[in-house]
Amino acid sequence: MELNEAMIPLEVHNMKTTDSSWVLITGASGGFGEEFARQYAGQGYSLVLVARRLDRLQRLAEALRRQHPVDVVVEQVDLSSVEEVVQLHQRLLERGIAIDILINNAGHGLHGPFLDAPLDASLAMIQLDVASLTAVTHVFAQEMRTRGRGQILLVASMLAYLGVQKYAVYAAAKAYVLRLGEALHRELKPDGITVTTLCPGMSYTGFAAAAHQTLTPALKQLMMQPAPVVRAGIRALQAGRISVVPGWANKATVVFIRTTPRWLHQTVISRIMNGPD
Fold it and tell me: Tens digits of per-residue pLDDT, 42-93?
C-alpha cells in the first residue's frame, strides 16, 4: 500500500528526554479518546494521539501543549487497516518512542435492525472494533513484553454483557473485546503487562448520534459525562484490575443482568435502549 504525505504526519514539539513515559490513545479526536488525552496530559504523560481526523487531532494537541508541559505526537492513521497499524508502530520505533500505556479506544457503533443495515457497514464495524483492536494490542504488547512492563486498556461497553436488539453486531463485537481483555489480563501478567477492560454505559460522547440512535427517556437518565468514565478507567488500569464498569447505575445494571433470566434482562435492557416495540 502506497501512502501519501497527508496520511503519515508526525508532529513532535518540545521533545524531552527519552526516559519520559508515553501514552498512545486511539480514537483520540473526540469522545472518550479526547478525554483520555486531557487526563493523561494533566498527569504529565507524553502523548501519541491517533485517529483519522487530522484537523481535530491537531487542535487538541495544540490545546494540550498550551495547558501542560508535555510532548504530543499526532498521527493520522486509518486504524481499520492492519497495515497502517504496523506502519504506525514502525514510525514510532524509528523516532525512539516506546509506548508504556496503550489506550485502545477507537471504535464505533451501529444501531438499527440487523437486516436493514448494509452488510458492508456491519463488516466495517467488526473490522475496526474487533480486528483492528486486536492488531493494535498485539503489535504494541510485543514491545511491552520485550521491555518487561506496560499497561493496556481495552474500551468495551456494558453491552458486552448481553445481546441487545438493534445493537446485535456492536454488542457481539464488544463481547469479544471484554473476553479478550479478561484472557490477556492473566496471560500477560507474568510478562509485566497489565490489561484492563473498561465497560462504559451510554455517555455524552456523540456515540448515539454517530450510531443513528434516538435516546429514550430512560436511557437519558443513565447517561454519564466522559470525565468520570475515563477517570474510572485510568484508576482501574493503575490498580491492575481486570475490568471496570463506571457509575453506580451501570454497576447495578450489570448485577441485574447477571442475576436474572435472559428473557427478563434482555426485555428490560432492550426497552431502555430502544423504547417500547
Answer: 999 999 999 999 999 999 999 999 999 999 999 999 999 999 999 999 999 9
pTM: 0.87
Quote the pLDDT of residue 17. 34
Domain boundaries defined on the chain: 5-215+223-248
Q: Which residues are catalytic?
A: 170
Q: Tell me, rounded to whole angstroms, the distance of Cα 17 from its chain centroid.
A: 28
Query: Which CATH class for the 5-215+223-248 domain?
Result: alpha beta
- pLDDT computed for residue 7 by the predictor: 36
SS3 for the chain, per residue?
CCCCHHHCCCECCCCCCCCCCEEEEECCCCHHHHHHHHHHHHCCCEEEEEECCHHHHHHHHHHHHHHCCCCEEEEECCCCCHHHHHHHHHHHHHCCCCEEEEEECCCCCCCCCHHHCCHHHHHHHHHHHHHHHHHHHHHHHHHHHHHCCEEEEEECCHHHHCCCCCCHHHHHHHHHHHHHHHHHHHHCHHHCEEEEEECCCCECCCHHHHCCCCCCHHHHHHCECHHHHHHHHHHHHHHCCCEECCCHHHHHHHHHHHHCCHHHHHHHHHHHHHCCC
Per cent of the chain over pLDDT 70 is: 87
